[in-house]
Every structure is written in structure tokens, then in C-alpha cells.
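re the bet — no i am not wrong, look at it urself. input seq straight from the record:
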Amino acid sequence: MSLRELARVVQTSEVTVRRDVRALEAEGLLDRRHGGAVLPGGFTRESGFPQKSHLATAEKTAIADLAAGLVEEGEAIVVGAGTTTQELARRLARVPGLTVVTNSLLVAQALAHANRVEVVMTGGTLRGSNYALVGSGAEQSLQGLRVSKAFLSGSGLTAERGLSTSNMLSSSVDRALVQAAAEVVVLADHTKLGTDTMFQTVPTELITRLVTDDPPPHDDRAATELQALADQGVQIVVAGGNGANGAPGGEPGPAATPRQRALPGPRRGHPTAALRSASGLSEGRVADLRRR
């Protein structure tokens, strides 16, 4: 859970929660993560869909709004499983002529009544904890597929290992989705930055863009991880805390503006420019990230 969510549940300040989390970690009762905490053994433990769906909801809404602006009319894309990609799918229902390949029942459900969007589902075995199709059937159905972009989420993201997840079957399908795409777009809120889980899905060098939210001022580790990712050539797209164009209450906002859709990133090797041009951050904000 994020510190923000913990503070809301126990009705106290994030400062108090942060102090309590340190004390609980010292007793071995939990593990601290960027902006939050997990149960011990977080390397292999994975939260179920009900828990994930209530975590960082505002951030996921803002990320989905921005990510939808990267999808053009008539494109063919793949969308992986996850609560953030589910939010993205709700916004993709308005893109005419779109073809979406997915292994997620939740993504397919979000697009089921979009008469201008064609949904192609993989085969595979249903994994009930996240409503995703996994296994050899899912992987084989993706062989020979080629699309423009892959939109993926995961359990953790670091500059050292890239995107990772806690489940081996999920990681194998995500790697197959990546192999089918010309570009890879990772959707990850700031609580996942710097978190490393058991199975690597997308190494950093294969990530084209990261769509994330702005880390809180006190979250030095997330800001440092963002800069490290930019240093490796990942284009960073940062959504504001209230969403790029999101409506209150998590409802899909209007379509992204052309300015948000045009995200030309520099060649790898020019990380600061990537961070600045893709996210719209000011020179001062980039300098602040570097100092962190």
C-alpha cells in the first residue's frame, strides 16, 4: 500500500505513517518500498486484483489519460494485463479503427462495447488473481504477430533490470507481447519505481517510453530512479497528480490534445532532453531531479 492510502485508512498524516512504517520494518513486520510498504517477502508476493485496484487510483487515471494520447487512429497495439492497463483500455474505446490484442479479460471487457475497436484475445489458461490468460497457449498465439506498440504494466521498475513481476507465467506472456511490438510503453506509477521483483519482463534497453506520475517531493528514491532511466535513454512522460485530462472520480477524461500525442524523443544518449521534451518538465524541474 502507498503511504497516502495508509494515511487515508488510519486517518492520520503521511509523516506519522512514515514514522510508524519505519518502526514496523524494524520489527520485521513489513518491508518499506518507495512511497509505501509491502508484506515481508515482497520479491515473490503478488497482491490480488482487489488490492491493486484500490492502490494509487488517481495516479493510474492520470497515467492512462496520457498513455491514450500515444495511440493513433487505425493502429494495431497489444495491451497487457493490469489495473493501469485496464484504465487505459477504457480510454481506447474512443479511438476509431483500433485493433487491440490482449491477454487480459479486464482489458477486453473495457473494450467489449466499443464498436469501432476490434479486440483480439490470446489463448491460454486463466489466471484468476489478475484475470489474465497465461501459459504456452497465450505465448503461441502471439507468434508471428507484429504491432506498432505494446502497453505493459508490472510489479516493479528499476533502471538496472527494467520492468519486473512476481509471477513467472505472467512474465513469459509479457515477454511475448514485447517481441510483437515495434515500441514498448511501460505504465507505472511512482510507487513501483525502484521496486524490484522476481521475474524480469522488459529489460531497460527495450523500453521506449515510461508513462508515470510525478513523485512526491519527499520521494528521493523514485526521482533518482526516473533520472537513471532517462540516463539509459528511456523517454519519460510525467502526468500531474490530478491527471493530464482526467475527470474527477476516475472517469475517463477527454481525448489527449495533439501536444500530448506528439512525444518525439531524442536518440538514446540524450537523456536529459528526453526527460524534458517528453514530459514537459521545466528546466528547473529537470535540474531538481538531477540533484535528487
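see?? Residues 114 and 125 are 25 Å apart (CA to CA). told u. also Residues 241-292 have pLDDT under 50 and may be disordered. so pay up
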